[in-house]
Amino acid sequence: MLDGNSGLIVNYVNAYRLTGRQEYLDTVLKTLGYIDGWLWDEKGYFRGSQDADEVYYKLSLAMREGRKPPFVDTTMYTNLNARMADAYMTAWEALGDKSYLDKALSALDFILSNMKTKDGGLYHYYDTEPRRPGLLTDLTSVVKSLLHAHQLTGGKRWLSEAAAFTAHMETVYWDEEYGGYFDLPEDPGAVAALAHRMKPMPENAEMSRNLGTLHVLTGDGRYRDMAGRCLLPHAVAYHEFGHMAAGYALAVDFHSGPVTEVTIVGGGPEPDALLRAACGVYLPRRVIRVMDRERDAEEIGRRGYATDRPAAYICRESACTARITEPESLKEELGKKQGLGARGWGLAGKGKGAHS
Q1: Residues 266-281: tens digit of each pLDDT
Q2: CB neighbours (10 Å) of residue 167?
């Protein structure tokens, strides 16, 4: 399943960044290899799944020769593609293989080009044409991935699309009275179970983090207020979900802060080495802002940043570091925020496509 593998990639990448253990990296590379080989579609998106044929997967490589592989479902699911795009961007953060980032952005491009509804929402899946609009899960997953793309590339398009989908969600799914998002648009003609709208905890938790990230990136305080209100519907009963409430706990942690904001300013050559250093240290409450000397000249000037050479600035709440120009120094400083001192893992030259 595409969904299970995307979660596996993210968790093992983070485990590797925290510990540097090779077995975690090996699992990441094997999983990415499987997705590249079987679930990546040359049309520019990730396929839905491959049949779970237990007998086939127990065979050795030699024994599989001449045997028909399990069926692959080529359907493009919007939420699952967004999650896998997010996972591939996470893999790029730790490993540096540009093909991972390219495939992630390709999947997002496919969604934006083919899956939008006329009212600003999203269709759920694509099999020759887009189908089934109106599900909250697609919007929350896509917004998260768009924000991730903006943080890694600085591309304004990704941020503006994320903000536009968020505005649509406020109009169609948001509960202004009690807070949180419903899973479906209001439908006066709905019958039976379809007439009962719910506020799913995973999607509201994810959207709380999305809104918190938008607040950091834009400075709009309304996003932070809404992020807190996303958490209210489950504030009393979250403990009933056990480990399934882990995403909710992470959302509460992100909202409670403080968030580590890493701003990378380009001057001269692209500041790729600084970005890779920032990505190599696992910080669960981290937001990256990549600023280009020409594209973002006005904001750079307003913030008083120098542009004579690439530099990074780390801010938490109202306290910021002096400019940092060396990748190793940036890793060192972020390692302190992480609580690992100088043990900023992930950019030690290990793994496919890694570089220092």
Answers
A1: 865 556 899 999 999 9
A2: 11
